Amino acid sequence: MLEVHGLSVAHGAIEAVKDVSFTVAEGQIVCLVGANGAGKTTTLRTISGLLRPVRGEIVFQGRPIHRLPAHAVLAAGIAHCPEGRRLFTGLTVEENLLLGAHLRRDRQIEPDLSRVYDLFPVLGERRTERAGLFSGGEQQMVAIGRAMMARPKLVMFDEPTMGLSPIMIQRIMDTLALLRDQGTTILMVEQNALAALTLADHGHVVDLGRTTLQGPGEHLLADPRIREAYLG
Amino acid sequence: MATLAQQIVNGLVLGALIGLIALGYTMVYGIVQLINFAHGEVFMVGAFGAHFISLYVLPEGVPWYAALPVMFLAAVAVSVVVAMAMERLAYRPLRGAHTLAPLITALGVSILLQEVVRVFYPGATAPLPFPRAFPDGSLAVGPVTVLWTGVLALTVAPLLGAAVHLYVERSRLGRAMRATAQDADAARLMGIDTDRVTLATFVIGGVLAGVGAVLYGIHYTQIDTAIGFQNGIFAFTAAVLGGIGSIRGAMLGALCLGLVKSLAGQYAWGGAQYDYVWVFALLILVLMFRPQGFLGRPERVRA
Amino acid sequence: MTLDDAKVLVDAPGGRHANPARHRPDLLAWAGAALVLVGALLPWAAFVLPGGAYPDRATLQFFDAPHLVSGFRLHLVLLGLAGLAGRARRPAGIGVVVIAVVHLAFLIGLGAPSAGGPVALVGGVLLVWRRPAVPALSLPLPGRVLAWPALLAAFAGLLWLVSATLTAGGQSRATNPHGGAEFLAFCGFAFALVGVLSAYGVLTWLAALTQRHRIFAFTVMLACALLLPVTGAGTGYWMTVASTIGVYAATAIGLNIVVGLAGLLDLGYVAFLGIGAFTAANLAHSVPFPVAALAGAAVAGFFGVVVGAPTLRVRGDYLAIVTLAFGEIFFRAAQNDIGGLTGGVNAIPGIPPITLFGQAFNQPVGALPGGFLYYGLAVLLVAAAMVVLVNLKHSRTGRAWEAIREDEDVARAMGVRTGRAKILAFLVGATMAGLAGAVFAHKLGTVGYESFDFSESVTLLAAVILGGMGTVPGAVVGASLLFVLPEKLREFSDYRLMLFGLALILIMRFRPRGLVSSS
């Protein structure tokens, strides 16, 4: 569904991502694992059109998208739930969710909003409050809901469990599994390799910008190199 | 007492006009954190656009109620086109550039526009009389008299301000604007074309400045190429005073500023010749001690 | 290092492919150079224009007297030859285009058809278009035996260039109606000359040489500057123009400290020049010049601290607006004759010329033209300002400013006392402007508030930006350009500010580090 070939991205003179390749098949949860500064976030930001690659290409459903602006990438069906959630904290929960559906002009927006509120009842109860007033876990729910409001075919999650309690982490991971079961493909970046690889159908280890290892999640979990480097 | 009341009314009229310019400043700053120094010139070219239509296009003897709408349209059209052009040609290429570059560019745009009008507009090297496109005479309330043009300004400006406020709070584009102002990258991930949002902000600023320009012209009866710079500084002061980025703040700040200028000119040391000095002193004090203004939230301001 | 090494070094990071045209002779570019040469020798106007030296030479006369290829046609020949060798095609081409366009426009204005003009223009365009992707040469630095003569020669050449630029086109439209065109064309040539030298690495080489033999270079430069009166520019008129430029250049250097080194945008800077000028004007009749000058500097410095004080609380764009507000307050106060100190709309007239040891500065000394002493004073002022700038730039304070300019929070975290450093920048800049202001007042004899309005601040800022923020020669080059051009092109004086505005926009867009800077 999504193919990344030989992707290189530079921040000024420094190449933050070097020659990364991987594919995401439809209906899978694919996880990029790697140390800090390995270029995972940069890879996601490039896929969603915030950054331009120096080399390489990104193909989504047979169509190259690496030259598209961010809004066209979203229109093509890729939503991005960014690192640190990046909610519009001064706006209400409902406004945040509606912004997720910004590009949509159909009549299904209201029902979709209800679905998000069904999934996360706490958001529905406090829909008119400013998003900045919510706890970290609740904010992550808003962020996930906001990404879903675009009705994407593929969602990219960048560190969705960062700073959350173990219970909340489990809750988020369950939600991601639910989304996958409902037919949404997921590409995620996660520091928490154990939780991520347990969930993932397929994992790619990105190191210093290159893809070094790849394979099904449980295989990677069993790999001694991974265990040593990321699972401790 | 009568003088005081009169000066308050004069100050409010000036404040209402400045407020229309201040809205443009504050919205652009909110979206792209740029002090669009040249926004005053958007106002100035609007005034000249209206002057041009009235003097060279409209046939003589057109009644004021027919001429005034045409002048508003002309001013708004000229202001909007200039505002869009400056965004596309001067500011957009600099997005993300080194810190002083946008402000210096804005300065360049301001000077360029002033000089282009001064050199090429017939007669613009001296102040030009503005067409009297509104009934003369005034409204007398007790000892206070307000020109009908002042009444118009005091009516139109708050209405427009409220309309903009509602638009930003309620509409889809307004929501996109607020999102972009908060976090442009996240807004792009929502599918918001931030370039278009920015352009739209400049357009709204242009519309308000164009309307303000005609109101200014008919009230003060003459225009020159310096009105943009002067009133632009006033408007910037007003925007900061009210809390830059805040729409209600801009209107409130403008009314305060109008009062300060008008009352300082009457009562403060040095008289009317020094009223500008007091406005600038106010600007310095506000920037130093309350840069977030009356209504601004501190975290939105780059101190 | 060999040429090929240099090429690899430059090409490697970008990973670009070497320009294939480099290996094959570029016939089109050669054709361009040839066209320039032919164009220079063809007649430029179909008939002999009345009056003046240059139009005569623009005719068929060449074929009678080939040794008379002089003026702009000589420049074209030189640039055409430079264009033959690949490296400097682009600057040479730009120079040719400027010369051709200026003269063509002038000739068309006279209704004179031209043969040489279009040919040279096409040649110049070809040269610009077929620019080679060859990096600048890196020349080896010679030892002292060679370095000193090289520096002497370089500065003598610079002296010639300055003198020739200053006098190009003559001083009065009455005697030379095509002076403006001649001047602009010469500017095109001067620009191309500098560009060609830069393409061959001469400028970088000279800069390195100057850096290594700093004191010697500075002495030679000072001597050369003081020698200007014995060149063609040695008339009272040019001395006055040059000393005015010097005063503004010194002021611009002061601004460069504030804006370029410390990164604090000051939009009201001309107020300090005004404060210095008004202080000196008020003291002119009671104390000798040095005292008045020091007083001017001190008062301006004091106000510099006052204006700088908000920097403790205000930053970035907001600080720029604060300085603008201070500048406007000064302007309004001066306009209204505050405290009877500025003369208001009547200005302060009758300021006596500087007199030291019985010698009035506006009188000629021996064979030297009148105004020479003012010129010398201006040169010393600029030299002093440059010394201050260079020393500050490489000092502890300079590094603190640099840190503040890049990121104030980080600077503070690193232990830089940011408040003190910022106020110091304002203090130094203002003092320098105040000193310049004192000279300004005496030289003009009259000081009025109009000389210190916002557009003057903008002009000074434009000078700094044009020359390159934070660079040493930048402010001098910028100030010279901005104050010579209006003097030379009076017919365009109405467009002066318009062009400055446009220049600010274009430089920020395309060369944010200034015209002089190489990067």
From TrEMBL, chain A:
Keywords on record: Amino-acid transport, ATP-binding, Nucleotide-binding, Transport
What is the top-level taxon of the source organism? Bacteria
A single MF term (Gene Ontology): ATP binding
Known SMART domains for this protein? AAA (SM00382)
Start and end of every ABC transporter domain?
Answer: 2-231
Q: Name one GO biological process term.
A: L-amino acid transport
Classification via Pfam families? ABC_tran
Return the similarity comment. Answer: Belongs to the ABC transporter superfamily.
This chain belongs to the protein called: ABC transporter ATP-binding protein
Species of origin: Spongiactinospora gelatinilytica
Automatic annotation (TrEMBL), chain B:
* Stretches that traverse the bilayer: 12-35, 64-85, 97-121, 141-168, 197-219, 225-244, 276-295
What does the record list as coiled-coil region(s)? none
> At the top level of its lineage, which domain of life is listed?
Bacteria
Pfam families given in the database record: BPD_transp_2
Alphabetized, the UniProt keywords read: Amino-acid transport, Cell inner membrane, Cell membrane, Membrane, Transmembrane, Transmembrane helix, Transport
Biological processes annotated in GO: D-alanine transmembrane transport; L-alanine transport; L-isoleucine import across plasma membrane
Provide a Gene Ontology MF annotation, just one: L-leucine transmembrane transporter activity
Q: Which GO terms describe its cellular component?
A: plasma membrane
Indicate how the chain sits in the lipid bilayer: Multi-pass membrane protein
**Location relative to the cell:** Cell membrane
- Which InterPro entries does the UniProt entry name for this protein? ABC_transp_permease (IPR001851), BCAA_transport_permease (IPR052157)
Q: Which family would the database say this protein is a member of?
A: Belongs to the binding-protein-dependent transport system permease family. LivHM subfamily.
What PANTHER family does the record tag this protein with? BRANCHED-CHAIN AMINO ACID TRANSPORT SYSTEM PERMEASE PROTEIN LIVH (PTHR11795), HIGH-AFFINITY BRANCHED-CHAIN AMINO ACID TRANSPORT SYSTEM PERMEASE PROTEIN LIVH (PTHR11795:SF371)
Q: What is this protein called?
A: Branched-chain amino acid ABC transporter permease
UniProtKB/TrEMBL annotation, chain C:
InterPro entries cross-referenced by the UniProt entry: ABC_transp_permease, LivM-like
A GO molecular function assigned to this protein is: branched-chain amino acid transmembrane transporter activity
Subcellular localization, per the record?
Answer: Cell membrane
Gene Ontology CC terms: plasma membrane
- What is the protein name given in its UniProt record? Branched-chain amino acid ABC transporter permease
Instruction: Tell me how this protein sits in the membrane.
Output: Multi-pass membrane protein
Q: Which organism is it from?
A: Spongiactinospora gelatinilytica
* One Pfam family named in its UniProt record: BPD_transp_2
Q: Which residues cross the membrane?
A: 27-47, 67-85, 92-109, 145-163, 183-208, 215-239, 245-275, 287-309, 372-392, 423-441, 461-485, 497-516
Keyword list (alphabetical) reads: Cell membrane, Membrane, Transmembrane, Transmembrane helix
